[in-house]
């Protein structure tokens, strides 16, 4: 951590040194506008604020301007390269996302519709949103009309996705050879004969000796394509301003086989925003958006099977030409089959693989997934200055409806496993084992259906006034709430029947003197139906202070300093986000049966307690201290911002079974699958566990102009640490306690290498609890020296980075020369670990063999082995998280590079149809720098990660 902090400070000092050198070299440097302009307006909770008056914990990105130099397809994908502390989470926690002040999904909006994105990090910045925003909030604000003539902007893009890599598996010969080796290691007879391996290698009859390569060009395209087009219409006069966005996008798929060769996504969207001045004291706004997503896919889980199906497991297609022509039964099967592929093949399978992805793609049908999103908001603001100067009242109501359903066509089908014989030196099929039957269907049917409805309202009374031009007061009284209900998933516990609600009354009082000294009090009274009566209300207070030092006389002579402000806040937020369900305070019983286990006779019904009652269950609290500063220097060329945060989350739920309640309050038993289950319990949920998060987030930018070259470099990041401070736990050894360890601590065994011999095994600690071992298996340290290797020998091996890596950072660079603009951004992380524990690395039993097993341990390769011995059994010893499988999850990703050419304005005049034209070429997800790059660029069991190359044009009429 100390090293990371030093490196970060060093990077900031380098940028500062460059700025000093350039200022000294230029007597009168030119100034260019940056995103850190102190006079810019920032969207905050229930309003806007001048950037110079912000009191920290708030960062904003102008996405509309960013889109001019960086075309993107994901709404929030690049924000972490501009906002320190945001990594998809905020300070390691998942935020509430709001679009135009309404809780919505970021997936339901296109990036071309967005004006700005504001990240609210500090407790004082989110408190007015109540419980559900207690872990931070992201405000997405859409574009609106302006007072200007009618403007039509058209943007069109065409791009292609290129797979980075595919998993590398052994072919059938390699698999069978090594599987036989695995059986040798287990003392078992070979499954595959030398003849089978030889004939497979020769490739004489691929139907009898299959060798299936899932990543062949027979099934996959080299690239797939995406196109999109957007039309934006905006304008207005003093009374009415309007903005409309029409968009369509389409992409196909990598699959190029059977029905899945038609896979595609077609998305349509329309948004309209309207602002009206109804009278000289009343304004109104309305927004509506509709989105239609249509996905077509053939049946069959190709990518899942690609990581599971062994290359020789079954024959994909059975050639009719190789059936015994004199066998009437076989010829009858061909004649009556509904699925004679290309007139030449029957579908292949076997007893274990009666259906498969290839057969599904050829015969099973398709699914059309349809999503419909409707969003509507109306608001009005009344200027009440006729009553009291500076007084206004706003009211808003919104309703959203998301509906998802599928239209499906499905057919059952038969597969066959051939029985081979050799006649006159030729292979011939003399029999077919059949699995399933061909079926018929004439109609589509509705497969799955889900919905979600959200209703939101807020009313606010605002007061804002200045006295003597230096005493600036503002106050807001806000009533805000939302509620959503959704369909209940089949097999769910039923908790979705209860609508999820958030309701609170917020108050904000702020004062600043001459924009120099600031004090802000913000708080909210919350209500939660997830808690028992008597505990359903709570008050969340926050207070913030600010001091603009650059306005003080003692800093007026510091010529390079344009702006410097210190700010701090403290708050206590109450939340119910971490209370997973309703009625968790309520105990309950259920009926059960008992049996006389001695003779199996007799028995009856019993009533068992499953949970105790706790009517004192209360809110979970977030106590936060935040201290920060912001600065601008050298004619606003350098902008710096930093926040230190210290959060304590108290009252997280626990059952208290280890340290709070006696052991006889709960009894556990083991089921037939060897899983521990609760037999009965009187233990209630209680507020017990505590977490802590600390860190520093920062942002720095340097911008300048030399001749006709303008440039800007931005660097943001976060140093982050978390700790489980209190846990209900009892362990025998201190190193096993989770309390005092990071929240994302990864636990595992310490590996000492491979067992080298039976003598080595006999002299080491007993491993019976992990499974039997042999030479070539992994050897773990006996940390507690009890002579047994078991779960008590696991220790913390590192941090997983599940909330955020210990160090995360982002870079962005803009170079502009005349009409050319080059933009690039990257994101990186370090300090976290991972485990190579996917099926690609953990290969045992009948699993598919990846190329990783080529480094397996054998007596001959013991000194150079990089992989344990192979086994045809489950081998539960080797495949556990340990230092052997651990890797450092350090990486830097070049996320985007774009070159843009803006045609000279001199090309257009008042009579021209066009007023602006730009062309750009863009690449996304281009490069990963990491020691584990190959693993990080490979996706096992899913579609491959892709680079995206795009050509676009934007025209304004």
UniProtKB/TrEMBL annotation:
Ranges annotated as spanning the membrane: none
Matches recorded under InterPro entries: Plug_dom (IPR012910), Plug_dom_sf (IPR037066), TonB-dep_OMP_SusC/RagA (IPR023996)
Cleavable signal peptide: 1-25
UniProt superkingdom: Bacteria
Pfam families in alphabetical order: Plug
UniProtKB keywords: Signal
TonB-dependent receptor plug domain mapped to chain residues: 52-137
Protein name: SusC/RagA family TonB-linked outer membrane protein
Provenance organism: Plebeiibacterium sediminum
């Amino acid at each position: 951590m100390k090293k990371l902090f030093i490196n970060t400070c060093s990077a900031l000092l380098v940028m500062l040194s460059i700025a000093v050198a350039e200022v000294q070299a230029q007597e009168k440097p030119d100034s260019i506008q940056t995103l850190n302009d102190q006079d810019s307006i920032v969207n905050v909770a229930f309003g806007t604020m001048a950037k110079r008056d912000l009191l920290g914990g708030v960062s904003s990105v102008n996405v509309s301007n960013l889109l001019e130099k960086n075309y993107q397809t994901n709404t929030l994908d690049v924000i972490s390269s501009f906002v320190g502390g945001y990594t998809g989470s905020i300070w390691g926690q998942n935020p509430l996302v709001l679009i135009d002040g309404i809780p919505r999904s970021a997936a339901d909006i296109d990036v071309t519709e967005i004006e700005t994105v504001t990240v609210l990090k500090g407790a004082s910045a989110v408190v007015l949103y109540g419980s559900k925003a207690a872990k931070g909030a992201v405000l997405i604000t859409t574009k609106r009309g302006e007072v200007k003539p009618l403007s039509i902007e058209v943007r069109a893009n065409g791009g292609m996705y290129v797979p980075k890599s595919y998993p590398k598996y052994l072919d059938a010969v390699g698999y069978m050879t090594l599987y036989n080796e695995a059986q040798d290691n287990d003392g078992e007879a070979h499954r595959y004969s030398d003849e089978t391996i030889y004939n497979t290698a020769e490739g004489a009859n691929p139907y009898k000796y299959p060798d299936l390569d899932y990543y062949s060009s027979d099934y996959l395209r080299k690239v797939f394509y995406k196109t999109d087009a957007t039309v934006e219409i905006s304008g207005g006069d003093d009374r009415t301003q309007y903005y409309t966005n029409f968009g369509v996008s389409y992409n196909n798929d990598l699959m190029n086989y059977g029905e899945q060769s038609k896979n595609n996504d077609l998305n349509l969207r329309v948004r309209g925003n309207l602002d009206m001045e109804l009278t000289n004291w009343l304004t109104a706004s309305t927004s509506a958006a509709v989105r239609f997503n249509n996905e077509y896919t053939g049946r069959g889980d190709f990518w899942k099977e690609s990581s599971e199906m062994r290359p020789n497991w079954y024959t994909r297609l059975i050639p009719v030409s190789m059936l015994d022509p004199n066998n009437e039964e076989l010829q009858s099967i061909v004649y009556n089959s509904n699925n004679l592929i290309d007139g030449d093949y029957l579908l292949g399978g076997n007893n274990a693989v009666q259906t498969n992805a290839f057969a599904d793609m050829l015969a099973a049908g398709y699914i059309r997934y349809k999503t419909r999103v409707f969003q509507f908001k109306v608001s009005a603001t009344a200027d009440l200055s006729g009553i009291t100067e500076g007084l206004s009242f706003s009211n808003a109501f919104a309703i959203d409806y998301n509906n998802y359903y599928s239209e499906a066509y499905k057919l059952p089908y038969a597969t066959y496993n051939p029985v081979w014989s050799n006649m006159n030196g030729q292979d011939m099929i003399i029999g077919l084992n059949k699995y399933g039957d061909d079926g018929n269907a004439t109609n589509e049917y509705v497969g799955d259906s889900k919905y979600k409805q959200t209703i939101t309202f807020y009313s606010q009374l605002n007061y804002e006034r200045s006295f003597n031009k230096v005493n600036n007061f503002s106050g807001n009284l806000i009533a805000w709430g939302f509620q959503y209900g959704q369909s209940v998933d089949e097999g769910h516990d039923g908790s979705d029947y209860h609508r999820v609600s958030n309701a609170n009354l917020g108050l904000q009082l702020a004062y600043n003197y001459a924009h120099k000294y600031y004090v802000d009090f913000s708080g909210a009274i919350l209500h939660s139906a997830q808690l028992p009566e008597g505990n359903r209300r709570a008050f969340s207070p926050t207070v913030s202070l600010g001091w603009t030092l650059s306005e003080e006389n003692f800093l007026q002579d510091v010529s390079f300093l344009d702006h410097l402000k210190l700010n701090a806040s403290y708050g206590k937020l109450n939340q119910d986000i971490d209370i997973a369900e309703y009625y968790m305070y309520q105990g309950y019983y259920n009926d059960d049966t008992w049996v006389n286990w001695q003779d199996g006779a007799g028995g009856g019904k019993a009533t068992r307690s499953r949970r105790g009652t706790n009517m004192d269950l209360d809110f979970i609290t977030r106590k936060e201290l935040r201290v920060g500063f912001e600065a601008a220097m050298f004619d606003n060329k350098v902008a710096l911002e930093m926040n230190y945060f210290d959060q304590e989350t108290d009252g997280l739920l626990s059952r208290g079974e280890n340290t709070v309640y006696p052991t006889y309050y709960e009894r556990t038993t083991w089921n037939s699958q060897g899983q521990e289950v609760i037999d009965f319990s009187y233990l209630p949920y209680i507020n017990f566990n505590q977490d802590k998060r600390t860190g520093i987030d920062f942002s720095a930018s340097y911008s300048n102009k030399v001749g006709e070259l303008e440039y800007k470099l931005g660097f943001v990041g976060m140093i982050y640490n978390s700790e489980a401070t209190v846990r209900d736990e009892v362990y025998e050894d201190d190193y096993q306690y989770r309390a005092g360890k990071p929240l994302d601590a990864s636990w595992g065994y310490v590996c000492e290498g491979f067992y080298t011999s039976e003598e080595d095994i006999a002299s080491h600690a007993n491993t019976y609890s992990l499974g039997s071992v042999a030479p070539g298996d992994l050897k773990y340290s006996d940390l507690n020296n009890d002579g047994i290797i078991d779960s008590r020998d696991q220790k913390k091996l590192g941090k997983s980075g599940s909330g955020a890596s210990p160090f995360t950072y982002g870079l962005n660079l803009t170079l502009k020369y005349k009409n050319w603009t080059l933009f690039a951004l990257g994101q990186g992380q370090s300090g976290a670990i991972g485990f190579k524990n996917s099926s690609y690395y953990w290969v045992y039993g009948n699993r598919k063999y990846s190329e990783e097993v080529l480094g397996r341990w054998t007596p001959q390769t013991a000194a150079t082995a990089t992989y344990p011995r192979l086994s045809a059994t489950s081998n539960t010893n080797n495949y556990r998280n340990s230092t052997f499988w651990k890797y450092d999850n350090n990486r830097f990703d070049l996320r985007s590079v774009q070159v843009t050419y803006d045609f000279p304005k001199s090309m257009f005049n008042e009579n021209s149809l066009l007023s602006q034209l730009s062309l750009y070429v863009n690449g996304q997800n281009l490069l990963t720098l990491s020691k584990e790059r190959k693993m990080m660029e490979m996706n096992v069991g899913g579609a491959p990660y892709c680079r995206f190359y795009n050509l676009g044009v934007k025209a304004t009429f």
